[in-house]
Amino acid sequence: MKGNRKWNGIVFGCALVFGLTIAVRSSADEATQKAAGSTSQVKIDNFTFAPGAVTVPAGTTVQWVNRDDIPHTVVSEDKSTFKSKALDTDDNYSYMFTKPGTYTYFCSIHPKMTGKVVVQ
Amino acid sequence: MSEAKKDEILYDHHHDGIDRRGFLKCMAWAGTGTFCVIKGGVLNSYSFNRIGELDPSAMNGELSFAQISDSHMGFNKPANTDVVGTLKAAVDKINALKVQPEFLLHTGDISHLSKPEEFDTVDQILKSASTKNVFFVPGEHDVIGDDGKQYLDRYGKATKGASWYSFDKKGVHFVGLVNVMNLKAGGLGSLGSEQLEWLESDLKARTASTPVVVFAHIPLWSIYPDWGWGTDDSAQALGYLKRFGSVTVLNGHIHQTMQKVEGNITFHTAASTAFPQPQPGKADSPGPMKVPAEELRTLLGITDVNFVRGQQALAIVDSKLG
């Protein structure tokens, strides 16, 4: 089942599985960050952005970290607001959201992978 | 096809039943290769594993070529830390064929991260192939970050649009399509209206009796859309191909061999020379499948295809790298 995965992350392995399950089961999955100016992290694992949706105050920097053995990208749906380079394993990309709104994004290599950032 | 088969075709483009000769589904886990020979318009295909048993005269035909795919040069994760070695092994396999293919098709994901040195390495390795004639189409890993500009510069000089093109060999019409550009959030592979218009016009000039081989990276049939293994607007392209007596569609992308014959069209995906991917839906994601080192080369391969003419179906047989 997971012969292709690098589940050598002992500490957060279980937490990731739980997080992914939530992300898959609920499209309304959201994690709210409190303080503006803080950082919110989205993990990319098993071809999934987790959490799939985050709600943050304006001024928050969202950081994506790729935990897959395959490169991914983080590209806004309009392909211009934000656009990462190819993120190889353990690479990360950050973008600060200054304006309120809903930002849908995807992996331009695997476009089935989508996520959402709601900026309040 | 000696491997156990499982019914994994979840979607079926053509429900019309027109000219439906049969519907073949098969999967082979091993990297596969086919040596097929057209003789008098009839296809014969032979497993690399059985090629030693053949009368060499059986291998002589009107046209043959080999397909390799998904070399992912630059990949260095545990699933295969030696993608250089496995690509070289594929080339060795081709060079060992008693009857040499006239050209090679590479169905994309030449590189892993679209880095210049990755393309350079593949180009260098392919120079050792007995045939220097290689036709490419890009995979999504070849167009990262620059909308395919580098790919176009390297491989697309004689092509149109995002590097689609066609050519003819011994009466067979070959069409290389690009379905990895301008992908949309939540979508699958995409050909786009400009390319579809070109395809329609390109095919119009051919008689229905012309054998056609179409090759593109992402499968043009819906194998497993949840993992992006399909092309959103492929039905339109396949519609243009319906009037032809014999059509073969060759794809890569899914790192395993599958075949489906439907009406006049034979669909075929090739194994990767780099690493295997899981069967559709049989893992959490389509990420690289780690297998014991001694098994790896049995899951990688090349496909050697001779063209299918008339009502004969293309067959796939195994050619393992090990």
Overall description:
The complex is a heterodimer of chains A (120) and B (322). Chain A has a single domain, classed as Immunoglobulin-like. Helices cover 11% and strands 36% of the residues of chain A. Chain A is built from one helix and nine strands. In chain A, the strands form two sheets. In chain A, strands 1-4-9-8-6 form a five-stranded mixed β-sheet, with no helix packed on it. In chain A, a hairpin with a 2-residue loop joins β2 (39-45) and β3 (48-50). Chain A is globular, with a radius of gyration of 14 Å. In chain A, 40% of the residues are buried. Chain B is globular and about 50 Å long. In chain B, 18% of the residues lie in helices and 19% in strands. In chain B, the strands form three sheets. Chain B has a seven-stranded mixed β-sheet with strand order 1-11-12-10-9-8-7, with no helix packed on it. A four-stranded mixed β-sheet of chain B has the order 6-5-4-13, with no helix packed on it. In chain B, a hairpin with a 2-residue loop joins β2 and β3. The longest helix of chain B is centred in the N-terminal third of the chain and has 13 residues, at 83-95. Chain B starts with 22 loop residues before the first strand and ends in a 17-residue tail after the last strand. The model of chain B is unreliable at 1-34 and 307-320 (pLDDT under 50). With 322 residues, chain B is an alpha/beta fold. Chain B has a single domain (33-305), classed as Purple Acid Phosphatase, chain A, domain 2 (4-Layer Sandwich), CATH 3.60.21.10. In chain B, α2 (83-95) packs parallel to α3 (116-126) and α5 runs parallel beside α6 (234-241). Chains A and B meet through β8 of A and loops of B.
Helix-strand blueprint:
The complex is a heterodimer of chains A (120) and B (322).
Chain A: H1 13-25, E1 31-32, E2 39-45, E3 48-50, E4 53-56, E5 60-66, E6 75-76, E7 92-97, E8 101-106, E9 114-119
Parallel strand pairs in A: 1-4, 2-5, 4-9
Antiparallel strand pairs in A: 2-3, 5-7, 6-8, 8-9
Chain B: E1 23-28, E2 34-39, E3 42-47, H1 48-51, E4 65-68, H2 83-95, E5 103-106, H3 116-126, E6 134-136, H4 149-155, E7 165-169, E8 172-176, H5 193-204, E9 212-215, H6 234-241, E10 247-251, E11 257-262, E12 265-269, H7 293-296, E13 303-305
Parallel strand pairs in B: 4-5, 5-6, 8-9, 9-10, 10-12
Antiparallel strand pairs in B: 1-11, 2-3, 4-13, 7-8, 11-12
